Each structure stands twice: as C-alpha cells, then as structure tokens.
Amino acid sequence: MPTPQQAHGIWASLYRLGDLIGPAGVLASGAFLAYLIGAMLSVRVVTVNAKEAPKASRFWDARTTLTPRVSRLAYDDLVGFLRDQGRVPPKPEVATGGDLDRERGERLVVNLAARDILGETRQLRTKLLIANYDLFNEYDRAVGEAEFRKNIAYALVGLTATLSWLQSPWWALLLIVSARLYVAGVGSERAANDVIVQAVVADLITPLALTGAAGVPAVPAGRSQ
User: Fold this and answer.
1) What residues form DSSP beta bridges with 58?
2) C-alpha span between 4 and 154 (Å, rounded)
3) What is the pLDDT of residues 178-188, one digit of tens each?
4) Nearest-CA neighbor of 141 among 183, 180, 201, 189?
5) The whole model's pTM is what?
6) Interatomic CA distance for residues 153 and 147, integer angstroms
C-alpha cells in the first residue's frame, strides 16, 4: 500500500475517508470487510449430498481402499452394524483361500456405505437435532472447530507466502503452524463424522442409503462370501 504522501486515486480517497471516520471507524470497516471476504472464501467441511460425498473421503485405490475420514472405532462399529443388517456377509468359521479377497470386498462395501452416509450429512444433522439435542451439539462443536482450524490454516498459507516474499524467507517457518492447524482440523472433521456414524449405528437416525431406496443392498440369505 502506498504511504499517504504517495497515494493517489482510490488510495488517496481511502486515506481521506479514514481521516473523516477516525481510527475506530477504520478498524470497524476493516474488520467488517475481512468478515465479508472470509464468509465468501470459507471452506465448509459438511457434505451436502451423495454427489459431494467424495469430499469426505480419501481415494487411494478406486476399488477397495476408499477410506472415509472416521476413526477406527466408528469404522469397526459400522462394520458390525452392517453385518447385523445382512449388508456385509458374516466371517466364515473356517479360514479359506479367499479370505483376502473377502476382506477387500468387505472393506469396499463398508467404505462405500460410510461415504454414502456422510454424503447425507446435511439432512442427517437435522434428524440428529430432533433425535438427540446433546449429541447434535457435540457434532456441531466438532464441525465448527474443523471449519475454523482449516480456514485459518489456508489463510495462514497465503499470509506466509506474502511475508516470505516481501520480508524474509524465515517467515516460511509459519507453514509449520499452518500444517498443524490443518491436521487439527482434519481431526475435528473426523470427530464430527464419528458422531454421524455412531448415531446411525445406534439407530438414532436412518440415512436413505440404508433404507433400501438407495445405497448398499443386503446380502442374500445363506451367502457367506
């Protein structure tokens, strides 16, 4: 930004406006402008529908290793839930040569089910609010923390790049803080997803993906692999 002595055009007009409204007015105006920019550029972590469900997942292999951002405990509970519903075949009592293929197939089914469930988060959070207000508050807190930490991390990357270019390369050390905030945001996002998955497992809410209208079909009776 030019100094008041060097300013001309719009910058000179802004300086004159600042003189008229005073430091407090400049601070309030700048804060409001920053709020508007942040509201337009903020990153949301809540998926809206099944088309946006891949945003809540990480794809390592297109066939079997789609890994939703849920904890291992929630994932295992979902496996048991789907197995009880007959959507995942029970484990055979005797080990067979096809155990590896069976486990990969089971992981694919569970991952796709988790992806579809998280893809309905916009609707499921409303159902959760009606079913259990305290659990919804836990979910909403985790979502708020995830969005705050991720957005601060993204903004800090831009600030770090600017300071490193204009001031000193040592400012690049701020990337450590940005990375740490992003990791914390991912952890909060995982905690929010856990609440949704556990609410489904506890039969507090029922996603469309598991009602038969859409989602993973049940395994035919008598089929174990």
Assistant:
1) 67
2) 31
3) 999 999 998 99
4) 189
5) 0.69
6) 10
